[in-house]
Amino acid sequence: MRKVSIAILTGMFAAIASVAPAQDVLPTYVLISNVTLWDGSSETSTGGMNVLVEDKLIKQISAEPIRTANATVIDGGGRTLMPGLIDMHTHLMYRYGVPATRNMDPQSQGAAAYETMQLYIRMGYTTLRDVGGNSLGLSRSLVAGQIKGPRLYSSGGAISSISGHNDLGLLTEDPKSDVFGKRGDVNVVTGPIEVREAVRKILRGGGAQIKIMPGGGVASQFDPLEATTLMEDELRSAVEAAADFGTYVCAHAYNDVSINRFLDAGGRCIEHGFLIEEDTIKRMKKLDAVMSLQAYAAYEVFKEPEKIAGFTAENARKGRQVNEGADRMMRWIAEYEVDAFGGSDLWPDAQLALIPQDLVVRQRWFSDVEILRQNTSNAGRWLAKSGTKNPYRDGPLGVIEVGAYADMILVEGDPLADVAVLADYDQNIRVVMKDGEIFRNTLQ
Ligand SMILES: [Zn+2]
Predict the structure, then answer these.
(1) What spacing in Å lies between the alpha carbon of 344 and ligand 1's midpoint?
(2) pLDDT value at residue 219
(3) Other C-beta atoms lying within 10 Å of the C-beta of residue 264
(4) Pairing with 63, which of 86, 265, 281, 346 sits 20 to 30 Å away (CA)?
């Protein structure tokens, strides 16, 4: 906040500043001493470290004691200090599910999303990437400092075809102007021109990246999982329109055809991907494409999809199909070392408490340090690919290094030995800092 006021004064309002001189604003320092530091990328952590935060950025990291006069000091007591977690796949606007949300107004949707964001902070998540739903205003309010919560990289309403995964209209409604379309929670389009228009509208509203729906999904009504619902020219249009603004497109794609078509069109970020073929895994590796992993949703929730509220028999059948592909896909990702990050997709109210389990379930395929990277530095690297549309460009996210954003959590126990300590968040996540500000501290 303070940095912002200085930036404004040195910018276009310099004339006003000369009339009413600004008060000297001293930086705020927080020193977190005596921690076992895991930086977000290294194989191991280092004991006896001290980290100094100046305003919103990390200023100094040292094994020697750091002396500073005006710092608030937190004695880490040897606990693990690591980057705040990042969830790369949320749908904040749909907390109460599609049917109930149809009858909510945008204000109530926003209030419910705000509560979810506060829960994320308690769980140690300091950044979210929302991949479908009109969370653009929430992102703007966070940037403006009007509300507090985790950072939000919003995709706005996902782009879908008629009868695609985000055609959420009732059968009797015009799919292009149903209630979700009117609110900007979805963008149902036909043809490359409408795709371009949707991309530019989302980016105009503060979208950081674009979400598109090239293939069928589980929870929707008109799109079999095998269906490929957008043409290559439509996908290419999205990728190129986003690239013009320096950002990227991520694609909801389960089946192999839709994944390949998106890769053909220049896309490099795949969500879900559970019905992928081995050759396409190798292609992703060659292209430096990334797989966004929804491990718990696919492997655990879809084990018994008939138990999911609101699921029809057809939704449940699709859920089981995904569940059958999940183990195979995750094994290939690990075997071929495809770039990957973690996005829980656990957005319904009944599943929110399970979000940290998305880390734990991945122990089946990945080492603890790989899992942690998937929700810190790997995720942070992809968030930075939103380029000119990145709402947070003053430093990297998902790492603890000098110049990085001061988004960190202090953890009881050793998550590098067992990520499950993070699942017991109320006990083990003792301090949550975001932007240099302490959001939670159970040490005192
Ligand atoms: Zn999703």
Answers:
(1) 9
(2) 82
(3) 11
(4) 86
Domain with CATH 3.20.20.140 in the chain: 85-366
Residue 380 has pLDDT above 50, yes or no: yes
Q: How far apart are CA 23 and CA 192, in angstroms?
A: 52
Question: Rounded to the nearest whole angstrom, what is the distance from the C-alpha of residue 94 to the centroid of ligand 1?
Answer: 10
Sheet of strand 339-342, all strands in order from the earlier edge strand to the far edge: 186-188, 158-160, 210-212, 249-255, 269-275, 290-293, 339-342
Interval between CA 337 and ligand 1 midpoint (Å): 23
Write out pLDDT tens, residues 179-214.
999 999 999 999 999 999 999 999 999 999 999 999
Looking at the chain, which residues constitute the CATH 2.30.40.10 domain(s)? 2-84+398-441
Closest CA to 212 of 226, 202, 204, 225: 202
Residue 21 — very low, low, confident or very high, per pLDDT cuts 50/70/90?
Answer: low
Distance of CA 345 from the midpoint of ligand 1 (Å):
5
User: What distance in angstroms lies between residue 252's CA and the mean position of ligand 1's atoms?
Assistant: 7
Ligand 1 centroid to Cα of residue 383, in Å, is 17
Does 19 score more than 70 pLDDT? no
Other CB atoms within 10 A of residue 7 CB: 10
90 C-alpha vs ligand 1 centroid, how far in Å?
Answer: 7
Answer with the residue of higher pLDDT: 417 or 2.
417
Give the Å distance between the CA of 329 and the centre of ligand 1: 17
Condensed to tens digits (0 to 9), the pLDDT of residues 310-369 reads 888 888 988 888 899 999 999 999 999 999 999 999 999 999 999 999 999 999 999 999
CATH architecture label of 2-84+398-441 = Roll (2.30)
Dist. CA 214 → ligand 1 center (Å): 13
pTM of the model: 0.94
Q: How far away, in angstroms, is 131 Cα from ligand 1 center?
A: 6
Question: 85-366 is classed in which CATH architecture?
Answer: Alpha-Beta Barrel (3.20)
Question: Do 103 and 79 contact (CB within 8 A), yes or no?
Answer: no
Q: Is the pLDDT of residue 10 over 80?
A: no
